[in-house]
Design a protein that fits this description.
Two copies of one chain form a homodimer. Chain A has 15 helices and ten strands. Chain A is globular, with a radius of gyration of 18 Å. In chain A, the strands form two sheets. The first copy, chain A, has a six-stranded mixed sheet, sandwiched between helices. In chain A, strands 5-4-3-6 form a four-stranded parallel sheet, with helices on both faces. With 320 residues, chain A is an alpha/beta fold. In chain A, helix 3 crosses helix 8. Chains A and B meet through helix 12 and helix 15 of A and helix 12 and helix 15 of B.
Chain lengths: 320, 320
């Protein structure tokens, strides 16, 4: 196997220039309540306030910006039932590139509508009998589409790294940064920004307790594959890290932590009642892992990345 | 009756200096969805992200900052079951002034706890048999407390005006500004900032449909008193404008509009799902009145003041 050409911080810098004026520079918020709870100074990077409601727009727009003429003409294909689908559809519309999104036939109607609303052509598949990756690859081969995977791609990773770059440029050095971990795009991108801008900062990935493949992989030193986990953190239901994301996480991350669904619900409540912010369960992972670390974080400067805010209101109300 | 000495824009400027470093300079947010709905460029001033969750902190802190030595030593008294109580309690704590808050005996436990949490001494009364204004005045007379009313006070009005000042200084001239209207503190304060910084801007106050005493007063040219209105906009259940607020509103406001509870719920949903923001019903009044004015606002630059975000999650879920 030939060695991977991993993205570096210069790629994050280049991505930041490409997304400028298209992605929001999302606000960094603070909460006296959280500061008092932790005895620390906590800075929240609010990617729930990003376009289409999640950081995914950064990586998708960066990847599509790098298409050459032929790629642009033929179009992009992506498979996703969640934020990546909308991020690709919206980025493609902004760049005038045709987009095909492969979604499960039982995906929430709202998500299918949102993807179509951004101009994406939706192809449905049966998630119990068909393989979405195969469908994506077939479509790519047949029509000349370029496949952009949800996380394991250097341009996607570099784009996601711009969120932590903005955070560190806004607040300066941090002692610790907590980042939600699904497939690892956000965490590995963040790791490039952290090691360049605040090298001594402890960097933690956070997974749902029931879906700790990243933690297992980090500790075993190889990519561990798990069954699809049951958790309300639908953005982190990935079954394994990618080649690129695992290599960067192994190299730059200090530890991988976990949080339970009950902890995520408590954080959703805290965000809503104290900070007036709507955060999806996956977006709560960072804070959920930081709260029990009160002793270690005492007096520190702590960053928490809120990954997204796309939560169904009916479900939110059920959980609370 | 001697003529009122109305606050002027210079008082808003002075208030801005007093609250600097204590109140948040809340963010101004935009939403492509809302811009497309209205065919306009809409700027939201997010006072739901203010300290204690509402603009009320601005006026309370400004008023208490102006206390002399004797007033500081004796303390402040306020009557309120809502955001004003918490604003006075928090401001008093920050300034080292003792605070007594008169609250109805059936006020929500959460609000009583929050007020106590900020260090306020809570005195309860029976809202069906006792007069809170009388209790407040009695306490003031007996103990030498200074009474700070929730809206009809020059220093409170000047403090509330700092929100619109910040908005206009951030985004520049506006064609129209929509402001929630209860007792008129926020609207009359805003009117001073608007007439100074963007004199041609149309300024609208917005009330709940069932509690349109301000609209009646504006049109009749005198303060009209109504029965306590039934509405989910609990911050705008006031029964009449004040002497100061009415004088300023009459002078500077272009019209007073209304919104139904159903419209407020739709706006709460829109804020939550599209902008990931939690807004209390009263805070939705501005947007609720702007949305039906699509034709008039076409191509315009429109400001919307979100007054607060202190909404009970259980109630929110019930409404949605």
């Amino acid at each position: 196997m030939e060695p991977l050409s991993l993205p570096v911080y210069a790629d994050v810098v280049a991505a930041a220039l490409r997304i400028e004026g298209q992605a929001h520079k999302t606000p960094v918020m603070t909460s006296r309540t959280v500061n008092e709870l932790l005895g620390a100074e906590v800075f929240f990077k609010c990617e729930n306030l990003q376009r289409m409601g999640a950081f995914k727009f950064r990586g998708a727009f960066n990847a599509l910006s790098r298409f050459d003429e032929t790629q642009r003409r033929h179009g992009v294909v992506a498979f996703s039932s969640g934020n990546h689908a909308q991020a690709i559809a919206l980025s493609a519309r902004l760049l005038g590139i045709p987009a095909t999104i492969v979604m499960p036939h039982d995906a929430p109607a709202a998500k299918v509508e949102a993807t179509k609303g951004y101009g994406g052509h939706v192809v449905v598949y049966d998630r119990y009998t068909e393989d979405r990756e195969q469908i994506g690859r077939d479509l790519a081969a047949r029509h000349g589409y370029t496949l952009i995977p949800p996380y394991d791609h250097p341009d996607v990773i570099a784009g996601q790294g711009t969120a932590a770059k903005e955070l560190l440029e806004t607040v300066g050095d941090l002692d610790a940064l907590f980042v939600p971990l699904g497939g690892g795009g956000l965490l590995s991108g963040s790791s490039l920004a952290v090691r360049a801008l605040s090298p001594h900062c402890k960097l933690y990935g956070v997974e749902p307790e029931t879906g700790n493949d990243g933690q297992q992989s980090f500790r075993a030193g190889r990519i561990v594959h798990i069954e699809a986990p049951k958790t309300i953190a639908d953005g982190a239901q990935t079954q394994h890290l990618g080649q690129y994301t695992f290599a960067l996480i192994r190299q730059h991350v200090d530890d991988v932590l976990t949080a339970s669904d009950a902890q995520l619900v408590e954080c959703m409540r805290l965000f809503a009642t104290r900070m007036k912010l709507l955060v999806e369960p996956t977006g709560c992972l960072g804070l959920a892992a930081a709260l029990p670390m009160k002793a270690a974080l005492q007096g520190k400067r702590v960053g928490v990345l809120i990954s997204g805010g796309n939560v169904d209101m009916a479900k939110l109300c059920e959980w609370l």
